[in-house]
Amino acid sequence: MTRKLSLFLALVLALTAFAGLSTTAAAEADKVITIMCAEPTTLENVDTCYATTYLEERMGAEFVFNFLPSSEWTTKLEIMVTANEELSDVLFGTTNELIVSKYGANGTFQDLTPLYNEHSIYIKEAFEANPEYQKLLTFADGKMYSAGRLQQQTHTDFSYKLYLNNAWMKNLGIESPKTLDEFTEMLRAFRDKDPNGNGQADEIPITGQGTGDKNAFYFILSSFTFVNTRDWFQVNDGVLNFCFTTEGWKEGLKYLNGLYEEGLIDPLMFTQDLNQLKAVLQREGDNIVGVVGGMNGSSMWNRNPKVLDYVGTSPFVGPDGTQWAPYQTYTVTHNGFVTKDAKDPVLAFQLLDLCWEKDASMVIRYGEEGVDWKWVGEDAKGMFEAAGYPATFELLTGVQSGVQNKWWNVWSPMNLGYDIGNGWADDGDPLNNSRLAYETVGLLIDYVPEEVAGKITYTAEESNEIAEIKTNVVNYFKEAMTLFVIGDMDVEADWDEYIEELEALGMNEYLEIAQTAYTRTWGE
User: Fold this and answer.
1) Contact between residue 104 and residue 139 where contact means Cβ atoms under 8 Å apart
2) Is 43 helix (H, G, I), strand (E, B) or coil?
3) Which of 110, 273, 341, 471 gets the most CB atoms within 10 Å of its CB?
4) What's the whole-model pTM score?
């Protein structure tokens, strides 16, 4: 009898203990989500990383990571798919649209469209607030195969900026130029009037690099025609054309050739690499650079006090009144996927969806709230305040760079909109690497056409058709731009031949395919 009573009491205690555990918690104890991604190079330990433990707690699940080689993870993934090896529940990593489309069509990546409709909370909220997000994630077949990574910042929309040596302008009594004629006169003064005061003719009116965002030419060409720096399309009432075939582009090349012939453009800018440019900008002694193009001062000065000599500028008014800033619309990248082998596709998708919740996105990007960053009130000064954007958060540590154990950043989906991207609180550091660029944004935001061609979604067939053509056309127009500027090609005499070469490379076919895809992507 005593033995039976003891067993009964033990059973009662066990049942009582189980009853005290909520059904949710009991279920959560068995949840596991396997995640495949490139092996991290900036994390101390992915399992103990704060972002990992934070999201595990939010999901009530354990994450098990399976790593691919960091430098060639897409190749390894292709091998696994071809061999029909079992994949993890979730794949994290930026993947180009052609691959996503391919893996979506063959079933490697699950069609998430029904999961968005039935199980999304946070991404659905974002779609309702801005339907463009859904368009950017929807493929030509009308399906969504990924959760995107959205990082909006007006600074990166205007990636081609121009910085003027304000110290030199003050020395010479010159006001910041408003028109292209005033800009030209300023360059001549920089060349001829010894603005650094050392008695030597060592001044370089304009320098930069021939490629990338440190090419000042696109900013100057925007005084003649609008330059969309994503795919070089202009759009008028839904009809596309290329900026580099316009009459304005032609006139802009004439102007740039004139600057080069006068010795106002540094001939080394066409060949120098970033380290050589930095050496010129950061040299010991007198500053010798008057104007330089670039997206962000961090890559050129990197806290060198010479950055304090420079200010940004608005676009210059061109000969016919044209005044645009080089610009590209924001986009999303495809970063999160539910694979064909997901044991619980709904649970896997819920992780992707959670990554778009604002607090989760901040943890993924910046680390622990209250330790690494914090929300700020209305009285905080913002880095983008001059452009009219209020501060929303403040960084508290330097954990956002280097090896750390707080954030994921490069892997997963997330949603950091303009309120975050433009919401950096001012740290009061005059040598903040991004201060010059952020303060320039307000000088550019009013100089964009009402109609701008956004990112275009192509079918796999369309992508394959235009891939080589696009590369050849873009490479040729950039090469020709250099030759026109330095005078090896004559703008008047060789313009028709230039257009004919673009057509021979397939420009018209590219434009026709792009038009079809653009209308499908953005048409009503």
Assistant:
1) yes
2) strand
3) 110
4) 0.89
Task: Average the pLDDT over each of 12-16, 109-113, 311-315, 400-404 and give the range with the smallest value.
Answer: 12-16
| Whether residue 499 has pLDDT greater than 80 | yes
| DSSP label at residue 429 | -
Domain contains 506? yes
Q: Is residue 445 part of a domain?
A: no
pLDDT digits (tens, 9 = 90+) for 340-359: 999 999 999 999 999 999 99
Strand partners for 92: 336
Query: Are 232 and 346 found together in one domain?
Result: no
Q: For 216-227, how does the pLDDT look when each residue is reduced to its tens digit (9 = 90+)?
A: 999 999 999 999
Residue with tokens 């300023």: 186
Nearest C-alpha neighbor of 297 from the set 157, 169, 110, 437: 437
Which string of DSSP letters, residue by residue, matches 293-345? EES-GGGTTTT-GGGGGEEE-PPPB-TTS-----B-----EEEEEEBTT-SSH
Of 136, 309, 288, whose CA–CA distance to 200 is shortest?
A: 288
Range of the domain at 510: 159-326+452-522
Residue 286, Ramachandran bin (φ over 0: left; ψ between -120 and 50: alpha; else beta): beta
pLDDT of residue 28: 46
- 465 and 317 within one domain: yes
